[in-house]
Batch of 3 targets.
Target 1
Amino acid sequence: MIENPYIFKIQRYCIHDGPGIRTTIFFQGCPLSCLWCHNPESQAMPVKSDKKNIDKLADFLMEEIEKDLIFYDDSRGGVTFSGGEPLCQPQLLFRLLDLCRKKEIHTCLDTSGYGDNKIILKAAKKADLFLYDIKLLDTKLHEKYTGKSVGPVLENLKQLSKQRAAIRLRFPFIPQMTDTSENIGSIIAFLKENTIYRDIHILPFHKAGEGKYSSLNMKNQMKDIKVPSQEKLTRIKEQFESRGFNVTLGG
Ligand code: SF4
């Protein structure tokens, strides 16, 4: 891959980032700093670039994406823009979404939902499916564990729902942080009152990114947190299901 500060990784043959087999493009930069982040190297914002560079990078990325067209076709897959937070680089994101649509490549936008309202609504017109995280409803707790308030995440979700945007909601199950009955109850109430979405994917906390923290000289605040037991996952799954949600465990 060419050296650039805007994309930190390209991963091929992904099966957990949306439907089918996908290429995932990881954007650099995220406004949040979730304690459980598996990609802490993605959080630092890149410097702004000009249109010429962005177009050049988009062309390079399309070449990478198109290498696996045959797998996308066979598996009903495509490309996923993840991060970091892709909404932080709207010019590059929109350019890639437009190019993919032209070539009929299915696109997913994996987002925290924390972004500029105009940008996310514009992205909804260009992307085929959002993978949208809903973590914590209490704004103080959201701020404590992610560094930012939950307000924009909820407001954007409401507006996307009004537009009937295709969204796969994802709930990161983080022991001692997002897994309380109270939080799940608030999420259910919010979704029922404000959105059309009744499917949710539960993403259990795992320790895959742990080694990165020491190599980046960052403090890993999750080192004493254990991965959730099957019993706890079942309890949360049943809480959603008892209120009419279809639940999938995993991406
Ligand atoms: S939103 Fe995602 S990329 Fe950003 S800090 Fe949280 S987990 Fe990491």
Target 2
Amino acid sequence: MGLFDKNKPESHLGADTRGPYICLNCEESFDVLYHSCPVCGAYDVRRAKWVE
Ligand SMILES: [Zn+2]
């Protein structure tokens, strides 16, 4: 019953349908951390988990 307890819950830490990074200005999400948002040009791309 407890044989699979060593599987850590990291695999479902939030549904990663969006990228881990998000632009705080236009709310576009990305898979990589851009220095500036390629969509709107803002310098507010952060990790999405920090926002929530
Ligand atoms: Zn943006």
Target 3
Amino acid sequence: MAQFLAVAAKTQVSVLEKELSSEKFKVDKISSLGVYFSGNWQECLRAHLTLRNTTRILLPVLEFTSYKEDELYNNILKHDFTKYITVKQPFMVESSAIDCSFKDSMYLSLKVKDAIADQFRSKFGSRPNVSKTEAELRVVVKGFKNNYLVAVDTTGGILSERGYRKDQGPAPLREGLAASLIDMTGWTSDRPFVDPMCGSGTLPIEAALKANKKSMMLRKQFAFQSWKQWISQDWSESYRQVARREIQPSSVNIFGFDHNPRMVAVSNLNSEAAGTQTSITFKQQSVADFSESPWSSSKPGVLVVNPPYGERLGDVERLQKTYKELGSLFKNHFRGWDCWVLSGNAELTKSLSLKSTQQIDIFNGPIKCKFLHYPMY
Ligand SMILES: C[S@@+](CC[C@H](N)C(=O)[O-])C[C@H]1O[C@@H](n2cnc3c(N)ncnc32)[C@H](O)[C@@H]1O
């Protein structure tokens, strides 16, 4: 039994915790870095294949306080890093330090790398190379006020990048963030889902993956599977079990609209790559000329939209009109629905002329945003 840390941005930690619990993982505690859960290595693989709200899964191996270089060096040596890889497999160290006596995280990485290299040298007479691109062991060091957490990265990539994005518009949402936004709304697949400004289709595709319990990770290999102790392990049953969950619900009502025909083509291309094309209808349509509702369910649904924020000069005036049209769209065509807007521009949001009942702080990349709930009752 090991304890893992599923990593998420601070604002996504609570949806990740709910996801872990609903997927029946044994949740131990939450922290600002993510959610700790325990299980065996099959559970670690299952986490990689099923979780949509985590960026990667770490195995924490050391926690200590250090003020000086030699203290840090000696603490690193307390864990045996030689059990993961051979001297032929490259490794790397990735560090961050806030309010620590090591001000420079590059220097911190260098010191940790030296300690790990010395550990290999004293045991085998040689050491593995360091490579950022080909590392099979990534050691992650997080320092805060001279307290350090050292972990090994079991993933070796980014789980929130699903691999279906074949093309994109100018400001696509990260796939993992789109999944978290959908979970925050509480949407379930028995209700219709609409994104009226879908761009490259991320929100409808993530909704369809959730509804179909479909994993984009089934063809992936993760870092820990190349480690010495696991290299000969047969993982195929775990992959099969997750693949078996992929039952396409026939009644799912998911729609994406965009006024730009190129974005509709891009959404269709990405949806095909994700294998969600039978679950989503993409259509060219502007928020200003929305006609009848194409969904068949009588149940009111969930609308999630990520409108343009107007970063370029001159955009704002034009976009005020678009936000006004968006507000009218909610009122005229989505009565009874839960409408949610990811807004990166508070001034523009006022043009919706609606009052939100819930405001959640979210970072969309470097942009500080609010995720706003407008129940259209
Ligand atoms: C910020 S992007 C959405 C990005 C999307 N969430 C993604 O992940 O790719 C905003 C989208 O709104 C579309 N848009 C702008 N004005 C529109 C309008 N009046 N009606 C419909 N779509 C519009 C743009 O073409 C653009 O694709």
